[in-house]
Design brief:
Helix content: over 70%
Shape: globular
Structural class: mainly alpha
Radius of gyration: 20 Å
CATH class: Mainly Alpha
Order of helices and strands: HHHHHHHHHHHHHH
Strand content: under 5%
Oligomer: single chain
CATH architecture: Up-down Bundle
């Protein structure tokens, strides 16, 4: 259902592209960095090159905490000031990272990048919720995710291209250009979607009351946990991918191409989901996709063991392409299902859902990345365990919600 729009609002296509570009600041600041991790590790003189994965995970830590700030902020200040403030903090973090000469400086910059990116990332979801709901919101989010996924398809290649002509610092220069451009576009074209008469007065007591109300909604809580489990597996892949493809499989600069293929699989799935979700519904598609991931993971775990953690690249890629296709079905739907009952407190709801799921995923993804031992086994085990946990979480959520409804 469309809740807003009309004169003064961007059209559907421009709105989707603008929101996708805003959210894509996050994907760009992750995936363009991946080819540069060995260069940064060498330049900053890291004792353990595997610690370079913290350059990825620290951004997510900042995002986890930032969402708790910007979500509630958007409920009483409006969506637009929160998004603009977040982009400005992101720009500050990019500057610190650009000029960093130690790992501590880099971690501070990446934390601030994540903290700032949380504003546009999470408040944009609330902004979408201001205008759409239910299956239509899922449709918009699926299109947004499609554009969002196009960034990872090309971002590593762009990062590698920059490295071929300059240093890793030039990648942060690109972040600055992109964030300034997006800030101008958003400021000029997107009006405020939360009217003054619908804004909340800031109150710690009221915030705690709203948080308790959100936690008491089983679908919001259950699908938030499910997203944390699922994205934990994906973050484990993101943090390990450079070492797996460039080092273990010796792909070198071809890493960007293989990474792009896997990202494209998620993007194709998001497009498919946008077509199917109106007809079949979010829950049915999500259960099918999650069951397929869990079903595929067990035999592939046995196959990976047979090859001592180093199966042929073609087999490994086939597995990941299929798994990530189903991930693409799940990402947009799970977020929409968690947010569906939270329209009256969309800002705080998006903040809590995003923050909790992000921090869960950081903890789980870091465990997977830290366990990397020169084989794909830690990643495969992580995907298998977390997909089963996600399936159990989804089933519990629906069963518990049904029991409450039947009372």
């Amino acid at each position: 259902m469309i809740l807003g729009g009309g004169r003064g609002q961007p059209g559907f296509v421009e709105f989707v592209i603008l929101i996708a570009f805003i959210i894509s600041l996050v994907a760009l600041s992750i995936d363009a960095m991946l080819p540069a991790l060995p260069n940064i590790a060498a330049d900053l003189q890291l004792d353990n090159p595997n610690d370079s994965h913290f350059i990825i995970s620290m951004l997510f830590v900042g995002m986890g905490f930032g969402q708790l700030i910007f979500g509630p902020l958007s409920d009483f200040s409006g969506r637009k000031p929160a998004i603009i403030g977040g982009i400005l903090i992101f720009i500050g973090g990019s500057l610190i990272s650009y000029f960093s000469h130690s790992m501590s400086d880099m971690m501070l910059g990446r934390f601030l990048q994540g903290l700032g990116a949380a504003g546009p990332r999470i408040v944009s979801v609330a902004l979408v919720r201001d205008r759409y709901e239910g299956r239509y919101m899922a449709r918009v989010m699926s299109f947004v995710m499609t554009v969002f996924i196009l960034v990872p398809v090309f971002a590593p290649a762009v990062g590698q291209l920059i490295l071929n002509f300059g240093s890793w610092r030039a990648i942060f220069g690109m972040f600055l250009i992109m964030s300034f451009s997006t800030l101008l576009w958003f400021t000029i074209r997107q009006p405020e979607t939360l009217p003054v008469n619908k804004r909340k007065q800031f109150s710690t007591t009221q915030m705690l009351t709203d948080i308790r109300a959100i936690v008491a909604i089983p679908t919001a809580t259950g699908y938030t946990l499910t997203m944390g489990f699922l994205f934990g597996a994906f973050l484990g892949y993101l943090s390990s991918s450079q070492q797996i493809f460039q080092v273990q499989y010796g792909l070198g600069e071809l890493f960007a191409a293989y990474f792009g293929i896997l990202a494209a699989s998620i993007g194709v799935a998001a497009l498919v989901n946008a077509k199917l979700v109106i007809r079949y519904g979010m829950r049915r598609l999500s259960f099918i996709a999650m069951f397929a991931v869990a079903l595929l993971s067990t035999p592939f775990f046995l196959l990976a063991q047979y090859y001592a953690g180093h199966p042929p690249l073609a087999i490994f890629m086939t597995y990941l392409i299929v798994v990530f296709f189903f991930f693409g079905i799940l990402f947009g739907n799970l977020n929409a299902m968690a947010m569906e009952p939270l329209g009256h407190i969309a800002g705080l709801g998006a903040a809590l859902v995003g923050s909790v799921s992000t921090l869960i995923s950081v903890a789980l993804g870091t465990l997977i990345a830290d366990a990397y031992d020169g084989s794909i086994m830690p990643l495969v085990i992580g995907i298998a365990v977390l997909s089963v946990a996600s399936l159990i979480s989804m089933r519990w959520t629906e069963d518990y919600a049904a029991r409450l409804k039947a009372r």
